[in-house]
Amino acid sequence: MVIHELRSHVTFKSVAKKYSVSTNTVTRIFNLVNYSQNTLPSVLSIDEFKGNTGNEKYQAILTDPQNQKIVDIVSSREKQVLFRYFNGFRDKKRVKTVIMDMWEPYKDLAQYFFPDAMIIIDKYHYVRQVYWALDRVRKRVQKRLYKEKRIYFKRSKRLLWADYEKLDEENRLALGVILNHDKDLYEAWELKEIFNEFRKTDDVKEAENWLRKFILAAEETGLQEYKDAIRAFRNWFPYIINSKREKYTNAFTEGKNNKIKVLKRISYGYRNFKRFRNRILHCG
Question: How far apart, in whole angstroms, are the C-alpha atoms of residue 55 and residue 274?
Fold first, then answer.
């Protein structure tokens, strides 16, 4: 019953109280639980989360988004640790698709261990590059405005980020007032609109054309805030385009990361990585 209770997001202390045993007894019982991982899925998602356990700040989470389950938790996201981990598998050829964020070590290990797999950059991680850049321009412009003019920028972030086609007439007029205040802000917003054409299309060739158009347009504006986005899109271009070929994302993984945060918070953290890993896998 103790082991069953610990499948939920509860503390060892609360389980101990429920069954009238000590917390140490619950811990010793849970130490009997152990999960091993001997196979890899055909679709592998890799991400990191801030676990602060086992003398490492970040741990890596591997999931199977196709079958909606956690594959494993690795003690560190560092390149050498992940290389040692994947080197122990014999079924590496099973992996046909790898989903990741734009972190170079993930790409290196995917290309090394799964050379025939399609690498996909998760949509959230490249979309935010554009919206963060737009918001940096907005903040820069707002800082230059007189106090009385800042009233026009009320709700400006929401309006600038919104899909223009979905805005009603009143909000379109409000957006027009905001955009007329500054040339840089108007250009930044136009870049977002070009990028949204890339987001909306499911055709791979059309997506390539829109993304190239966005990169060139962003370079022509000379906006410093878009430099990181331009660099990221140039460096990761084929892997971003792959997100149009397959619809897998890290959404399932991010959901599990949020549950891990809850588990970590209610337990006030874990010092023992093995116990932390088994608890995550136990909760599923």
Answer: 12
Ranges 64-68, 119-123, 264-268, 277-281: which has the least confidence: 264-268
Place of tokens 């949204």: 196
Distance, CA of 159 to CA of 157 (rounded, Å): 5
Tell me which DSSP letter residue 91 carries: -
Domain boundaries, the chain: 1-33, 43-121+249-272, 123-245
Identify each DSSP E strand in the chain by its residue range. 43-53, 56-64, 69-74, 97-100, 118-121
User: Is the pLDDT score of 152 beyond 70?
Assistant: no
The SS3 call for residue 26 is helix
Residues in the chain: 284
What pLDDT score was predicted for residue 15? 94
Kindly list the strands in the beta sheet with 97-100, ordered across the sheet, starting from the edge strand earlier in the chain. Answer: 69-74, 56-64, 43-53, 97-100, 118-121
| pTM for this model (two decimals) | 0.89
User: Closest Cα to residue 211, out of 221, 228, 197, 225?
Assistant: 197
Query: By the 8 A CB rule, do 129 and 228 touch?
Result: yes
- Domain 43-121+249-272 is of which CATH architecture? 2-Layer Sandwich (3.30)
Instruction: Band the pLDDT of 258: cuts 50, 70, 90.
Output: very high
